[in-house]
Amino acid sequence: MEKGAAEKYFEFAVRANSLDCKLLCEYASFSWKTRKDADKAEELYKQALEAAPDDPHIVARFTAKMM
Q1: What is the pTM of this model?
Q2: How many domains does the chain have?
Q3: For the chain, which ranges sit under pLDDT 50?
């Protein structure tokens, strides 16, 4: 599947700030809901968890998506 503008912008933003856990979660959600790419979503959620392991919102979103 070809990448659209939204995905290109997400990738650009993540390259600029790979530790922005909210951005990573939004990109993960986009990957999950829009692109139907569970592997990419899981990778991004894990990256967000590494950036902010104690953030309860990230833990909850990751757990909900991966169940």
Answers
A1: 0.85
A2: 1
A3: none
